[in-house]
Design goal:
By secondary structure, the protein is of the alpha/beta class. It has helices at residues 24-33, 40-50, 65-77, 93-106, 123-132, 141-149, 166-171, 175-182, 200-209, 240-250, 263-275, 289-300, 311-314, 334-341, 362-372; strands at 4-8, 55-58, 86-89, 114-117, 136-139, 160-163, 190-195, 214-218, 228-234, 256-259, 280-283, 306-309, 324-327, 351-357. Helix 14 links the parallel strand 13 and strand 14. The structure holds adenosine-5'-diphosphate (ADP) and magnesium ion.
Amino acid sequence: MATATIEAESSESSVGFEALGLSAEVLSAVRDAGYTEPTPIQLQAIPLILKGRDVMGLAQTGTGKTAAFTLPIVERLAGGPRRTRVLILTPTRELCVQVEASFRKYARYAPVSVASVYGGVPLEPQEKQLRAGVDVVVATPGRLIDHLERQNVVFDDLEVLVLDEADRMLDMGFAPQINRVVSNVPPYRQTLLFSATMPPEVEALARKYLRKPVVVQVGRRSSAASTVNHYVYPVPRDRKSALLAALLKREAMESVLVFTRTKHGADRVVRHLEHDGIHSAAMHADKTQPQRTRALEDFKTGRVRVLVATDIAQRGLDISGITHVINYDVPQQAEDYVHRIGRTGRAASEGDAFTFMAPDEIAMVRTIERVIGQEIPRISVPGFDFGTVAAD
Ligand code: ADP
Ligand code: MG
């Protein structure tokens, strides 16, 4: 499919942002953001996007993919007339808000307007914003279709379409909606696709919507962030909540993201922790949008130290300063492990990833180890390890 594939090294580069062809306005915003060097995906993707090429960018979570497409888009928009020229599709409301925030950050010296539209909140304020005219729309597919049907927005002048976190959008079953949206945008456009992984479905999506794309791939397809320290705690299933409470009390854990397999599981963990006097919040699909926003806000500001979430609610979220990710349940897919771990150790900071492994999860942990290409050290906590307590 690709006309060219660039495999960038994940190692240090000495090239600065100045060499990428960005204007002074954009470079100032980058400086304000505190970035000193482009990440490998930014280094490879930005010049190609500026040239107008379709680009498929593959790099693990936390490698700066948002800026990789946002910076060259801001560059393109600077100075143009006001009409919707850019559409960015994202899988979740949280990501939508986050990409919008990135846009505002990078466009602070450029007169670019941006609106985000996502479900779970009233249509009308979004409708007003869209009808007033914006340069950039960041949207989740379902809500965007609502607006298209009401003709709140037209994409006749669209120049750039971005499919962000493409793997996640497909996981969430958005393929028909994406198709619907793409049928509403001009065929002659630049299309950018970013994804942490490239399962065959993502490749098919790229083949369908991108024209002669350059594939930019950073690092190994499934390698977990290298700044993360991984540990596995063998523990019987019915002792997991006690182990979690014990670790939270014992270790210096500032900001902890706990993953459970189910929504019920997340609620149960929160109840257990509250019972042990540890304040925490749950985030999953059954929570209302205000509840989710609140939980995230409390977690970001440090009011709540522990956020318990399911994968759906969490993937792709950029929360800085997470010191620990805890897999309360071992993820069913090795790729999910990589994504979850991508929540900590983002950019250059260190993070720890603890995985609670019940006896029936040993095989899954082995699979994960094969995929990430490293053996994860086991930590035995006396009184919890199923080697030292009766496993039942
Ligand atoms: P991805 O989409 O690849 O998962 P994000 O775009 O959300 O990752 O970026 C992850 C984090 O890295 C964000 O907090 C972002 O501000 C930061 N970041 C992006 N580019 C750089 C850079 N060049 N230098 C330092 N930090 C960066
Ligand atoms: Mg992203």
